[in-house]
Amino acid sequence: MRLSIILDFWLILRIIFLIFLIILGIFFFIVFILLRVIRRYYKFPIPGFLTRLIDNPIRRKLIQKPEKVADRMELEPGMVIVEIGPGKGSYTKELAKRVLPDGRVYAIDIQESVINWLKRRIKKENITNIIPKIDDAYNLSFEDGSVDRVLAIACLPEIPEPVKVLKELKRVLKLDGIVSLSELIPDPDYPRRKTEKTWAEEAGFELYKQFRNWFVYQLNFKKKN
Ligand SMILES: C[S@@+](CC[C@H](N)C(=O)[O-])C[C@H]1O[C@@H](n2cnc3c(N)ncnc32)[C@H](O)[C@@H]1O
Prior knowledge:
Elements (H helix, E strand, L loop, with lengths): L1 H40 L6 H7 L2 H7 L2 H6 L8 E5 L5 H9 L5 E6 L2 H13 L5 E5 L12 E7 L8 H11 E12 L8 H10 L2 E8 L3 E8 L2
Parallel strand pairs: 1-2, 1-4, 2-3, 4-5
Antiparallel strand pairs: 5-7, 6-7
Bound molecules: S-adenosylmethionine.
């Protein structure tokens, strides 16, 4: 009787473990194979609610800390920053803090839902130096040479013509400005570092600094002389 209870227990444990492995397998298949194949041939802006989902505590605390991303951008008070595709605004907020008292961050996106959500957030949190605005990275509404820093996290590879965007960033950037691009492996659009460097070089940038581990990288580019 006792032996049969123990055997049943082990059987149940093995079944639970098997179910866990199957779920994990399906998850990895979807994220690392299926979505990548789909995104390779079919690019579209990911819906606003998903941009908020990927900005989660695990990512912010363990994988891609906003403080670390900002530390690498050589920020100073008074700077003008553009962030493309700000999502929920966690990175935007960190940048905005660093350029106080008179610097500002323009958080731009083509999706109205992303911008409206961010507007509500900054109003609620009483942040005055973040300016969310609908704008297209292909054709930005900024003057030539007017921006100190640009940040795009998990964003550029989602846009069908990244080199065209980078050329536009070169136009709005000041002479000593920095474009900072950061990517993380679970993103179905994740490009290899080499690919992103090639895009930037094609647009007239050169690699200035890079930071990386096996999971995430951040590349800082400056205009080529
Ligand atoms: C993956 S989300 C960004 C996620 C966010 N940076 C993060 O790390 O949590 C990419 C964003 O880029 C925006 N986007 C796509 N094409 C764009 C374009 N041409 N101009 C401006 N934003 C664009 C999308 O609307 C989307 O909100």
